């Protein structure tokens, strides 16, 4: 286990150089708090956002945001504030990623315990909702299949569960085996790449994420993930079964131009989830939807949450 103090989000090297719009500046400067909780001898870090004051009757279930493989909670810094009028929001760093500690072995069971612990520790209420992107969506499926009674619903965001017809032609999933260190922060920053690779017109978002993806060690600057957490074992789960067996409401968001979720895969996943689970395709988006289409992504999530609220009202 690695003991860590709360990150200093005001470090000079975290300030982006790209020109950015006012909405983005306001979002990343919204007050946040870092928290740590011990989950099976591993310190798990998560962020919470200071909620905006709202009437009690407008407060909705809390939201837990889960990042993709090798990513971290800061991927949600420019997204989360859009939900604060009605929701308390938290974003987790899964073990071996972001500012959480490391484990000798990483399993989906460990990740489920981490998710459950943060849901409780962050005080997200009795009926929270999980939104998981990519690998985070896979962990969300697994959690919902085993512990779906702990949440009101889950939103899976461009997470690949391939049908048999797609597996043979799919590009090999990347497994990392060696950590990389750079003599300076600037050199590390230049080496940052999105995986899978994609174009992104919002370079100010890419730069923000890149700056929050490095940490300093005695050997130099390196990425904020443990290479052991990025091995091939992270896909060693029957995710199709998990997707089909989720014990709560669910919805699927996919990118129109995703490199890892084709139209065939998306339909396969939708069929596994069932007709009551909506699927929304975000136009002009790639796998990292939040980066190139943040507003359309937020709009899609809000529509799903609003529709679920309407269903609940009709059932009363």
What attributes does this structure have?
316 residues; alpha/beta; Rossmann fold; eight-stranded mixed sheet; three-stranded antiparallel sheet; 17% strand; globular
What does this structure look like?
This protein is α/β, with parallel strands linked by helices and 316 residues long. It has helices at 22-28, 108-121, 135-147, 164-167, 185-191, 203-211, 239-244, 263-273, 289-292, 294-315; strands spanning 32-38, 43-49, 63-66, 89-92, 129-133, 153-157, 181-182, 214-217, 220-223, 249-255, 279-282. An eight-stranded mixed beta sheet has the order 1-2-4-3-5-6-10-11, with helices on both faces. A hairpin with a 2-residue loop joins strand 8 (214-217) and strand 9. Helix 2 crosses helix 3. The longest helix has 22 residues, at 294-315. The chain starts with 21 loop residues before the first helix and ends with a helix. 43% of the residues are buried. The mean pLDDT is 92.
């Amino acid at each position: 286990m690695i003991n860590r103090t709360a990150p200093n989000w005001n470090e000079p090297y975290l300030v982006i150089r790209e020109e950015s719009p006012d909405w983005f500046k306001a979002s990343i400067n919204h007050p946040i708090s870092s928290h740590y909780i011990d989950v099976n001898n591993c310190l798990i870090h998560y962020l919470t956002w200071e909620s905006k004051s709202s009437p009690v009757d407008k407060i909705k279930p809390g939201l837990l945001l889960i990042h993709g493989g090798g990513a971290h909670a800061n991927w949600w810094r420019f997204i989360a504030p859009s939900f604060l009028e009605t929701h308390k929001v938290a974003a987790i760093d899964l073990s071996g990623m972001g500012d959480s500690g490391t484990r000798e072995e990483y399993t989906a069971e460990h990740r489920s315990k981490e998710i459950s612990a943060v849901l409780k520790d962050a005080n997200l209420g009795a009926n929270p909702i999980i939104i998981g992107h990519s690998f985070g969506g896979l962990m969300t499926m697994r959690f919902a299949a085993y512990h779906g009674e702990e949440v009101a619903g889950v939103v899976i965001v461009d997470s690949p569960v391939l049908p048999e017809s797609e597996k043979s032609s799919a590009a090999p999933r990347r497994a990392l085996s060696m950590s990389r260190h750079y003599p300076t922060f600037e050199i590390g920053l230049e080496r940052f790449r999105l995986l899978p690779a994609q174009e992104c017109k919002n370079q100010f978002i890419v730069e923000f994420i890149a700056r929050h993806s490095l940490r300093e060690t005695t050997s130099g600057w390196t990425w904020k993930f443990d290479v052991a957490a990025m091995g091939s074992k992270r896909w060693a789960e029957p995710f199709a079964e998990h997707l089909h067996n989720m014990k709560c409401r669910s919805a699927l968001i996919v990118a129109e131009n995703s490199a890892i979720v084709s139209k065939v895969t998306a339909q396969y996943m939708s069929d596994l989830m069932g007709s009551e689970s909506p699927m929304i395709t975000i136009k002009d988006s790639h796998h990292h939807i939040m980066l190139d289409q943040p507003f359309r992504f937020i709009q899609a999530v809000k529509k799903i949450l609003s529709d679920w609220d309407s269903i609940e009202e009709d059932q009363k």
